Amino acid sequence: MSIDPSDLIDATSVAKILGLANRTSVSVYQRRYPAMPRSVVDLGRGRTKLWSRTAVASWALSADVRSPQAICSAELAQLAPQGEPLAQGIFRSAYTSARQHALAGGSKPREVARSRRAAYQLALDHALQVDPAFRVAMPDRWLDEA
To answer: Residue 102 belongs to what domain range?
Structure first.
């Protein structure tokens, strides 16, 4: 594989392209977004890593790099929980917790799969314990996430 030296950038430049506050956030993004390009030059722990500017810029244009909180809020805004207010609150809270953990790519094992459907089902199960008539209206194919 041939690498153009003028295309190589360090973590500071990667952070700038992605709109991150500092270079240390790049490693967080690499854990959160498995499809993010990996460094093409890695000299080992504690030493400089270099990425392809072209690959990072291309990925940044195509990736959804909103925060887990923003993604979760946008998803919940598409839903219309129907039932007791307490059950609605439990649904929102359980969905938010499970979905944000899944999106953030936490390192601790959880019982919730990393999908919108799994977070929804967990939240629905909790809400139904409080209000057996609880329902959620949603757009067609909402659970068939991209």
So the answer is: 68-137
Could you tell me if 126 and 72 lie in one domain? Answer: yes
Residue matched to tokens 């030493």: 47
Phi, psi (rounded to 5 degrees) for 87: -65, -40
Q: Are residues 27 and 42 in the same domain?
A: yes
Consecutive sets of 10 residues in the chain, 146 residues long: mean pLDDT of each?
A: 85 88 88 88 88 90 76 86 95 90 64 77 95 93 76
Strand partners, 80: 137
Residue carrying the six token digits 């390192």: 107
User: How crowded is residue 52: how many other Cβ atoms within 10 Å of its Cβ?
Assistant: 20
Find the helix or strand (DSSP H, E) in which 50 lies: strand 49-52
Whether the full predicted model's pTM is greater than 0.85, yes or no, is no
CATH number of the domain bearing residue 10:
1.10.10
Distance CA 131, CA 144 (A): 26
